[in-house]
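Memo to structure team: turn this sequence into structure tokens by end of day. - J.P.
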Amino acid sequence: MITGSLDTLQRTPLPAPLARIMADVVKSVPHWLDAPLGKTEVDGMRLFCLVSEELTEPVAARRGEFHEQYLDIQLLLRGEEWIGVGPHAYACEGADHPHPDLWFVDDEQTSYLALQPGHFAIFWPGELHRPLCTLTTPGLVKKLVVKVHKDLLAGL
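Reply from structure team:
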């Protein structure tokens, strides 16, 4: 996992493919803030963006998730979000698998990241995370999730 802020991105050492994606695709909060909701393909199914508006929920109402094929770059555009992270070892047996590259597990997260607009979290394939959480009152957030197929990360 890598976390940071677009304001200090130049001080965040990223592998070259991720640095290029952050500069060429993620760009800035204003670039995506008024973007329509939904999917934007950049390189077919190897690299695409999802813009969504959703309500955060109490931690107990959310489940941990992981992906096998895609790295997630999650950028908060508006609102406030907590994302659960860890544990690094979790039980995948019995995981719900509602979509091709999405598994849900009931393992409890060990830490939480507090995101404000412009903050991002990058989750490698297999890293457990619990997005769209709140520790207080649920609120509407707008976020960008860039999905990067693991083939684009070869050699890292």
